[in-house]
């Protein structure tokens, strides 16, 4: 797009400088259960299980999303045993969300905008893919990211109302193992 307007750009340079107001204190673990389309929404119960395990392991878990995603995020928090204060869905603007992601210890999400922010800020992430192959929109292989999907089960309908089978094939233990590998790799740096 930039080249079409004669703006010089490196198509492989996907990084952003962190915003000046990165969140202070213990870096949060951001769990983002929402997505614009059902085909990209992993079940809330699974996100809740992941959030509960991470919280139990000492992570400061926060749940993000748009105002429209507040109810599902609140449901995930309740199922995970997290306090209402952990639900930031609908309570952050884009600049606050960018600061949160830039300063996060980890992001766990589906294939949605917050995953792209994690890639751009090199924030460790575990990204769950359904209808769209990660080769198309996934994080760069050089970053602290893990992609989970089952390509053999991909239906490939990005605007469907129900979760893509490739996404549903990803189980909670898969996500927790990926979190362990991303967090472990970061600690080893």
Automatic annotation (TrEMBL):
Q: Extract the CDD domains matched here.
A: GT9_LPS_heptosyltransferase
Keywords for this protein: Glycosyltransferase, Transferase
Query: Which Pfam families does the record cross-reference, listed alphabetically?
Result: Glyco_transf_9
State the source organism's domain of life.
Bacteria
Asked if Mitochondrion is a keyword of the record, the answer is no
The record's section on InterPro entries has: Glyco_trans_9, LPS_LOS_Heptosyltrfase
- PANTHER family listed in its UniProt record: LIPOPOLYSACCHARIDE 1,2-N-ACETYLGLUCOSAMINETRANSFERASE-RELATED, TETRAACYLDISACCHARIDE 4'-KINASE-RELATED
- Name of protein: Glycosyltransferase family 9 protein
């Amino acid at each position: 797009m930039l080249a079409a307007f004669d703006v010089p750009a490196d198509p492989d340079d996907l990084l952003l400088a962190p915003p000046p107001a990165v969140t202070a204190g213990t870096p949060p673990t951001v769990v983002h259960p929402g997505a614009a389309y059902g085909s990209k929404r992993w079940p809330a119960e699974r996100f809740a299980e992941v959030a509960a395990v991470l919280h139990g392991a000492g992570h400061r878990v926060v749940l993000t999303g748009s105002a429209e995603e507040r109810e599902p995020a609140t449901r995930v928090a309740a199922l995970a045993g997290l306090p209402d204060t952990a639900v930031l869905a609908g309570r952050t603007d884009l600049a606050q969300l960018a600061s949160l992601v830039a300063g996060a210890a980890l992001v766990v999400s589906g294939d949605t905008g917050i995953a792209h922010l994690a890639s751009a800020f090199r924030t460790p992430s575990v990204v769950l893919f359904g209808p769209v192959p990660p080769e198309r929109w996934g994080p760069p292989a050089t970053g602290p990211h893990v992609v989970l999907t089952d390509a053999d089960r991909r239906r490939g309908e990005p605007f469907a109302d129900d979760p893509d089978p490739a996404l549903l094939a990803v189980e909670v233990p898969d996500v927790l193992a990926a979190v362990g590998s991303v967090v472990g790799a970061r600690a080893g740096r």
